[in-house]
């Protein structure tokens, strides 16, 4: 969260990938840093029973979250 905060202060958009067990802690830390709206992409807890299709689906969802979070920084007219 500190790295994301430092980059955002420099005008560099960020999305922090957070494990689903740590989302509340990440949001709390972002609030303490004065940036409650830092973007998060939430990664579910990996399970050893996931097959390749499940792994790909999880990665695809994570990718979309990162992309959407970064695009939130871009004015709609520029997309």
What does this structure look like?
This protein has helices at 2-9, 23-32, 52-71; strands at residues 16-19, 40-43. With 79 residues, the protein is mainly alpha-helical. The protein has one domain (2-78). It is flat, with a radius of gyration of 14 Å. The relative contact order is 0.18. The model has no long low-confidence stretch (mean pLDDT 92).
Provide a concise account of the structure shown.
With 79 residues, the chain is mainly alpha-helical. The chain has helices spanning 2-9, 23-32, 52-71, and strands at residues 16-19, 40-43. The protein has one domain.
Kindly name the structural category: mainly alpha
Helix proportion range? 40-55%
Secondary-structure element order, as H and E?
Answer: HEHEH
Largest sheet: 2 strands, parallel
Assign an overall shape.
Answer: flat
How many whole angstroms does the radius of gyration measure?
Answer: 14 Å
Average pLDDT, rounded to a whole number, is: 92
Number of strand segments:
2
In what order do the strands lie side by side in the largest sheet? Answer: 1-2
Uncertain runs: none
Number of domains: 1
How much β-strand is present in the residues?
A: 5-15%
End-to-end span in angstroms? 27 Å
Q: How many helix segments?
A: 3
